[in-house]
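yo

u said u wanted the structure for the complex thing, so here. seqs first:
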Amino acid sequence: MILNFWVLSQILGLVVVVLLGLYAALQGVRILLRWQPGSASEEQLELEKRSYLVSTLVQYALAFQVLSLLLFVVTADYLASFISGAMCAFGSLNSNDYGFRALWVKVAAIFAYSSWLMVNHIDSRAEDYPLVRPKYALLLLLLPLLLADIYLEVRFYTSIKADVITSCCGSALRSLENPYGFVAMSFPGEVAMALFFLTFTAALAALFLHLRTSRYALFSGFAALSAFLSSLLAMFTFLSPYFNVVLFGLPTQHRCPFEVLRQPLVGYPLYALLFAGGVSGLLVALAEFLKKKPSLRESAAQLQRSLARLSLLSLGGFLAVSVAFMLIFYAMVGTLFYH
Amino acid sequence: MIRCERVTKVFNRGRPNEVVAVRDVTLEIASGEVAVLRGPSGSGKTTLLTLIACAARPTSGRVFVLGKEVSRLPESFLTRFRREHIGIIFQQFNLIPGLTVLENVTAPLVPTSTPPKEAEERALRLLERLNLAHRRSFRVRELSGGEMQRVAIARALINNPEIVIADEPTAHLDTSLAAEFLEIVRSLREEGRTVVIATHDPLVYEHRLVDVIFDMRDGSLVGVER
Amino acid sequence: MSLRKHLNILDYAARFMLRRKGKNLATLLVFTLVVFMLASVVMMMGSLKKEAEETLALAPDITVQKIVAGRQGLVPLSYAARIEEIRGVSRVEPRVWGYYYDAVEDATYTILGVESLPFAVVEGSPPGEGEVAVGYAIAEKKRIRPGDRIILRDYRGNYVKFTVAGVFSSSSSLQSADIIAMPRATAREFFGIPPEVANDLAVYVANPAELTNIAYKISLALPDARVLTRAQIRETYDAIFGWRSGIFLASIIGALLAFAILVWDRASGLSAEEKREIGILKALGWSTGDVLEMRTYEGVLLALNSYLLGIILAYLHVYQLGAPLLKPVLLGWSTLYPSFELMPALSVEDLLLIFMVSVVPFLAAVVVPSWRASTVDPDEAMRGI
Ligand SMILES: Nc1ncnc2c1ncn2[C@@H]1O[C@H](COP(=O)(O)OP(=O)(O)OP(=O)(O)O)[C@@H](O)[C@H]1O
Ligand SMILES: [Mg+2]
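structre next:
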């Protein structure tokens, strides 16, 4: 159990998000039950007004969630000094069963909220609001995610035991018993590296082709998502040492994905690019389904293009920064293949 | 251009204070016409105007404006349609007191992608046309009634609407100002705009500009004069 | 989607607020005050933590005290010899030190008997036999310079005159601020500590990994000893900071709640004039979403301005003025810290954190009232209500 200002403010922020989420869900249920398409009744007007509230609330929830993810990692990093054996966020998150689960739920939540907001955005641009029911049903599905988020995070803080020694990135990522270590060890540096460049090439090429021909949307989304996932894998395996060596002069065995955040000017933009690329990539694919509804086709297609462009630029930016650090590393160390 | 089919508007339906403000009204106004809604106070003129102006939806019946059915449109689209095609001159001017004349006139363009420069240029052109350019940075409180009226007109025209709607436009004006207003209506008609005016001022409905008069009593349409 | 539209609405929101200066100023001030308090505490805590960390860096790996009848007693030097026999111990240093109450200044100093000064002398030289060196806070408060005399009352009640050889400071001002250092033999004489005992023993260990193990061995070998490792001291520090700042933060979070209620109240209680303006805007072709967006920008503008203002004020308060409003509360264990300078220790993380507990609840508190205000029907405005 650990309770300090950092933890308190994190929980306070989450409570705010949960309250917003619950309120939005409540409104959503109301809309779901009483929505009458084509009706001009006063009640319908009232529900239309409420739908603005819901989308604003979800927008807030998304913005706060991004902030909360950031703070969660930062807090975990800070808590490392209270946990024996932990030296960075990895150690804290790894110190009990809830840390990493909370992190992944938060990451998933960002994808989910963004998806909902896009569906909502497109739907509200068609005069017949064709997706009202599925949309608000989906909204209710976001609720468990939100509750899981706060549950896991609170459990994480309450389960921290300062005197139980945990293993940090250095050892855990080399041990087959740790799930992350297991994944990291089953992808030797060269394999992870090949996968990384392969998925990025596929994603960038597909997005580019999609922008040219407006085909391959599903493949683009799939490839962008793969690039996102392979980047996460890369940060746990071969990629993070380039940053850690160049920025902090750490030994190459140090494969911690969180270390780079200690240089906020590099770390935050880096992950921002990655998330922007991944999320907008997913949305490109999602928009393809929305295009099937005739009244949504045009606005969905329009948004899809902007998202594809965003995804292309973000993933390209992430790749460019990564390659730049690899080259600096090369200039410093004299080799790229340190593994 | 504007067509109402058996339009009814009920307020507070199912409650003791239920009011049928507009009852089963069917009418048609052609493009470029000047139409007048005439009737005593409480006869439902303003309510019918809100329906034509896309500011509210009817309880039943259908309203077509510029060939589009607007009676079933969700609020946001209704608003957008109104913003793009309709200019409204309100019963009580409805100017925003804290703003300057220029800011009042450009207020409808704020939630659009019009750059502020362009909005101001458009507003200035209108103010010049209405002989108000010298008042552009006055606050609304510092204006006379006739000037307020013209600011309200400029604001109604800022989006270059096909349809201009005026609710009791001459109620607060003296005879010469009312005549001035009718001159403006004439120029609007010459530009090909449709004008709908609710009034019980003979000065307006007896003017030869008027193409058609709809008589209203207790929410119902009781007569049409062409 | 066009950005232009959002900029237009933002611009209108800014002017909407500026037209209601009085109302918004009050909220701005309260909000700024909340952020200011919060940020001051966070900054102060950050600095103290940094200080403590540096102090700890100077602390020995293990401190050994003797417990007599449940209280701390003097440690025989024979204990030092026994500890030195334990494998892995690289050095044992008997320490002589004590507290000294200065009735004139009503302050408590720490007198430290040292062979070599662990601090950097900024003026003069390290103390020789019969000489002392003082921390700069004392030097400033008592207006002493190297070469001056200082008179202290020893354990027998005799006034002893010392020559001040030097003034020292360290990167960790928290520790060196109230210290008077003198050679160990002089300190023994001053406090009347016999030569065969010391206050405690500082134990240094060759391999930090063995620290816990060695501490355990010491406590086995010397059952009446209290063995403190650096990690334990650190926990004590953290507990003190945690406790002191905890009280403060709890009250600030209380203030935040009160503030959120105030904000809710203000945001819901729109003036008739504001309501009218919003109604007119709706009638002019602003949608519910547009008005809601405008009101949201209002909240965001207010929150960001207060946030920035609060942070800047707190920065000036803590790092330029030395936190006069907080110091008595957070540093209550010594009355003497006259020119105690806090090291700037403000990180992006701290800023995010303060944002999370101030701006986020504020925005959340205004969203529903803002929405309610934006749902006026346009036809109501047409009727001129
Ligand atoms: N929002 C409302 N709620 C309830 N009743 C309403 C509402 N708006 C209008 N009414 C009622 O509907 C009827 C018609 O009102 P309306 O304002 O349309 O009349 P009007 O012909 O414009 O009158 P005037 O010449 O006085 O402006 C009135 O009886 C009025 O009380
Ligand atoms: Mg009326």
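The first strand of chain B starts at residue 2 and ends at 11. Chain B has one domain: 2-225.
cya
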